[in-house]
């Protein structure tokens, strides 16, 4: 009998759990699609009139939407955990088929209304302002055209009076979507979602090609990114600009093998989309630190993109970014100290103090994570950069005062290029916990769902984040050896000393 699709080893799925993993991933995608397809709700902002994005306008009950959204997170996390476990048990799926499935899922989700936040409405507004000759770094959405513009006026609180925090490259992409969508909010949002989905799929292709011939790494490259149900839910279905930023960053890391200058340009474009992807540029610099000429080429490539971009945008393009550096999200462990420090010192002093503490903690946690992830050969620049990127971005999403679940895209992409390690478990716990904290996501006060979710996000989630930080430090202290030294860190679902299982064979 022929083996089932995606399983070249025939009966291996039943013994390894690969089939169950894919079933849960598929269920997560279906639940995600259901939330969008039902139309405007506590998770989905009203996309306005028009044929796109596709939805039913079913006016679903808030608790139904919340249950579907939470179910998508839970089944997605379980499916991803089972997939990683199945790989360790010998499951060898066809990565090209997995990538095709991820691409189809991304395309379908991009045609539905974005869910989980109203950020895409801000993207559309900034693009509209830029496309009409305004300055999204100076003109807030609620003031554009006297507050009557059909696109800019759709921005939801608390961002209606907020100018753009995103880089000039993001603004160019948003202006392109606005030019394609015209005065239609739904059409503009759909173009934004399609461009973002294309970037995510493109990054998936780059990751798969970069993984080369190793079957396990090729499978990981797809399962942790293009077919990662949490990435599909948070980044693709949410239509977040993080998809474009991380895709450019991934392309930059992959280009290190051939051209540091090109790598620098791509990483500069990533940073010009979202500033946090500068961490990936630092990772690339770490990988070429022993070659001063290549380091200079890398820096020159970044400067060739960033300097003209910000020269055109103007220095005030950084104003909102500086303001955002003072924010503390409700789900962050820093929220546990925010009120006390604000009361004792005043926010003018406490917020910079929190920022300094966060950077110090990020450095400490990055060193701790380094003990969990074996170092690749020094000659492999892409692997070295991917490892450094995963360590830096992992520490950042765990320690940043303002950290949202879709920010984790910057962790999952470099992690997809690395062999299995305890960082897989840390990433899965972090993203799952953060995603559940932002179900259903929109800020719609006045209903029971909003009040219950807000209590969970602000009271329970910060303690869970602190517990995860303590778990990282505990795992790091348990592992013998020095940071960066090759070794065998404990893997989730595998006992110390257990011998690896051979690949599953056909019966």
How would you describe what is shown here?
One of its GO terms (molecular function) is glycosyltransferase activity. The chain crosses the membrane at residues 21-43, 63-86, 98-116, 189-210, 222-241, 261-288, 295-313, 353-373, 385-404, 454-477. There is one protein chain. The chain is mainly α and 507 residues long. The chain has one domain (12-478). Helix content is 62%, strand content 0%. The protein is built from 20 helices and no strands. It has helices spanning 12-16, 18-37, 62-88, 95-110, 119-131, 168-181, 185-211, 215-226, 229-236, 242-254, 260-271, 278-287, 292-313, 319-324, 335-345, 347-370, 381-399, 409-415, 422-437, 448-478. α11 packs parallel to α13. The termini are close together. Residues 1-13 and 486-507 have low confidence and may be disordered.
Please give the number of β-strands. Answer: 0
Task: Report the order of strands and helices.
Answer: HHHHHHHHHHHHHHHHHHHH
Quaternary assembly: single chain
Computed Rg: 22 Å
Assign the structural class, choosing from mainly alpha, mainly beta, alpha/beta, alpha+beta, or little secondary structure. mainly alpha
Please give the count of helices: 20
Regions with little confidence, pLDDT below 50 for 5+ residues: 1-13, 486-507
How much helix is in the residues? Answer: 55-70%
- What's the overall geometry? globular
- In total, the number of domains comes to 1
**Percentage of β-strand residues:** under 5%
Biggest beta sheet summary: none
Determine the N-to-C terminus distance.
10 Å
What is the average of the pLDDT values?
91
